[in-house]
Amino acid sequence: MLEPAYNPVLVDPFDHHPLELGKGFWFNPGNGERYFVNNGIPVFLPEHQMSGNNLKYSRFYDRISRFYRISSVVYSRMKGSSDRAIKTKYLDLLGIKPNDNVLEVAVGSADNFLYLPDTATYSGLDISYGMLTMARRHLKKWKIPAGLYQGEAEHLPFKSESFDVVFHVGGISLFNDSRKAIAEMIRVAKPGARLMIVDDNEASPGKSGHKNPFSPLPGLTGTSENDSPVKMLPSGMQNIEVRRLFDDMLYCITFQKPEKISVLEISPTS
Fold it and tell me: Could you give all domains of the chain from N- to C-terminal order, each with its CATH number?
């Protein structure tokens, strides 16, 4: 993995206290908590601390990590398209500009980074260390400098207002707390930043005929606008747009963090 061009300020994901670098670990000088670095990847949530869906799907993606990229390419072909065509359809909507600092939450094996402009800087977080191992391998092969971090979307280890663009693809409903994850994405985005959430309609609760063998979700029945996370966005978000892509195979939600927003407005609500 190449040295990342941008190193965001790291904070304790649970109390947001700035972290300091020790020998092989980051630590919180306020409470002494240590977060160890495993082969260049800071670990902010080891498996023994995971629970619920986060633990379940971390293990699932660890198991399939070696085959994930090829499975994604094959699945795209089964849909009559290509991996590049599907990904660039929504990635182009990010509007990434030169020198933007970009974060992907649930980066997986970093497949999306392959199709993004090389004039920006990238960071990726995922709960699966197996997927991050594959991401590191891909980034080295593709000569893409990016920072990788292991942690959960509900507790991001980055200082508030760190990124110009923040996005997530392919599993918002799998998190322990989707609302909190979205609130965290907004917290680490800069004022005026663009955010995006993309998911597979077949993987959404309520979709029948689920056929993707590489997703952990079973097929169910029915679909509606409420299946997308628009209703989970906190108040005050701007320029909200919902798109249905590839004959409704994917939905894509883009929105903008306002220039001024209070902590109360982005706090997740029940």
Answer: 45-266 (3.40.50.150)
